[in-house]
Design goal:
The protein is an alpha/beta fold. The chain has 13 helices and 18 strands. It has helices spanning about 15-25, 50-60, 65-70, 115-120, 170-180, 200-205, 255-260, 275-285, 315, 325-340, 350-380, 390-405, 410-425, and strands spanning about 5-10, 30-35, 75, 80-90, 100-105, 110, 130, 135-140, 150, 155-160, 160-165, 195-200, 215-220, 225-230, 235-245, 290-295, 305, 310.
């Protein structure tokens, strides 16, 4: 490492970690290294159709991130053609009613998580990423340089001036910051969601359903499951999933951590009152289930950073998948941190940058966690009778879509920079190592 550079360790090679690394790698005063626990990226999840706030965040970090997404993603239509996520009621008196068109944009694209990560990796020097490094322990020392020590499962260690934990829902960084016994540390599944997924060829799927999913993302809502259809891999693969409300209501936290619940097989007979197209997809998933897992999110953490350690992405604010903005929130995290670390030239500035990050990102990202829970209940006909009033349902989705998509992502960066510069001008800042800009004496911001 060149003398005088700030050494940043990013734990977790997911969307948040790699996007941030792509930005930091271009800053000559930052020495960044990514430690990813898996030996290689796995194609898990239901695929992604990134929303407008995600695109804005990628451009702010590094326009190459946006280009990597566009180069590998599947266009859902012509570049000039507007596409949406269609929310359709699949059961009840309003069966077949289109209640919302979310994420309307020209040239919308879908992508598998593995393809997106592959694109991000291409923007980072190969020597700046280590695979097979599963974090098991974090230790901080009182020394100025390389004060954070990382211990990995393979017995190796690394040191850094700063740790940014993007290590997912089962985050070691989160447990370190909050404490293993803090009520917000472990993932939760309050509404008992169980997800069943099938990845099958489009050709095979077309032989079994009349539903059109290749030009729009399709969501079919009903009380026994939300059906999600998304085309992937250049229009060769259908990702179909059924999210069952209450299907994992007895899932204990240790099972969520292990990610293996041995769920009951999906029973198509339970969907006899769903629309014909919905029943067709249910049968496809039931007969071709490739994975099943309990959905989970995080209760709100009181802070995202302390001293020279911070968490971001799913480590900080895992949300249920129903609002479709988890990846976008991870990218917003990365955009804020990238902007802040452009100004971090000295070790004593790290904690102020992380304080500003926590203060700016916590309210919005946690609102999206709440939104994900409410979206799920609305889709499952379990939210205050909203499914009985399609106009009200549509108004709800429109309001929430505006909250995520129409957000001023650049302004959020500016707000974080304003907080950081205010903290950086304060006298006695070296004692300011707590989260949310607190000091050890009175827990309040210095004025």
């Amino acid at each position: 490492m060149a003398e005088g550079r700030v050494k940043v360790a990013i734990v977790g090679g997911g969307i948040a970690g790699l996007a941030l690394a792509a930005g930091l790698a271009k800053k000559p005063h930052i020495d960044v290294h990514v430690y990813e626990g898996s030996p290689a990226f796995k194609d898990i999840g239901a695929g992604l159709a990134l929303h407008l706030n995600a695109i804005k965040a990628m451009v702010l970090i590094d326009p190459g991130l946006k280009q990597a997404y566009f180069d590998r993603a599947l266009s859902m239509g012509e570049e000039h053609q507007e596409m949406t996520t269609e929310v359709i009621l699949a059961q009840g008196p309003h069966q077949g009613r289109l209640v919302a068109e979310l994420g309307r944009a020209k040239g919308r694209k879908t992508i598998s998580r593995a393809d997106l990560l592959e694109g991000y990796v291409s923007l980072i020097p190969r020597e700046s990423i280590s695979f097979g490094k599963k974090l098991v322990k974090i230790t901080e020392t009182l020394s100025d340089k390389h004060a954070v020590r990382l211990s990995f499962q393979d017995g190796t260690e690394a040191t850094a001036d700063c740790l940014l934990g993007a290590d997912g829902i089962h985050s070691v960084t989160r447990a370190y910051l909050l404490g293993a016994d803090h009520p917000a540390t472990s993932p939760k599944n309050h509404d008992g969601w169980q997800i069943y997924q099938a990845l099958i060829s489009n050709k095979h799927a077309h032989e079994q359903t009349t539903l059109e999913w290749e030009s729009n993302v399709v969501l079919l809502a009903g009380p026994r499951g939300l059906i999600n259809c998304l085309s992937l891999n250049k229009n060769t693969i259908l990702s179909a999933s059924i999210s069952v409300h209450g299907g994992a209501s007895s899932t204990p936290e240790h099972v969520i951590r292990e990610g293996n619940t041995y769920p009951k097989p999906l029973d198509p007979a339970l969907y006899a009152d769903y629309s014909d197209e919905a029943q067709q997809i249910v049968r496809i998933v039931a007969n071709n289930t490739t994975a099943s897992w309990p959905a989970a999110d995080h209760d709100h953490a009181p802070f995202y950073a302390r001293g020279r350690v911070a968490m971001l992405g799913d480590a900080a604010h895992t949300a249920l998948p129903f609002s479709g903005n988890g990846a976008a929130q991870a990218l917003e995290d990365a955009a804020v941190l990238d902007a802040l670390f452009a100004e971090v030239r000295h070790l004593d500035q790290i904690s102020r940058a992380l304080t500003a990050f926590s203060e700016v990102r916590k309210p919005r990202s946690q609102a999206v966690v709440d939104m994900g829970r409410k979206f799920g209940r609305v889709y499952a006909y379990a939210e205050d009778g909203m499914h009985e009033d399609p106009e009200r349902m549509g108004a709800f989705f429109a309001e929430m879509a505006a909250f995520t998509n129409d957000f001023d992502v650049s302004g959020q960066n500016d707000a974080a920079m304003e907080i950081y510069r205010r903290l950086d001008e304060v006298n006695g800042v070296n004692g300011m190592n707590g989260a949310n800009g607190t000091n050890g004496a009175n827990g309040k911001l210095r004025n």
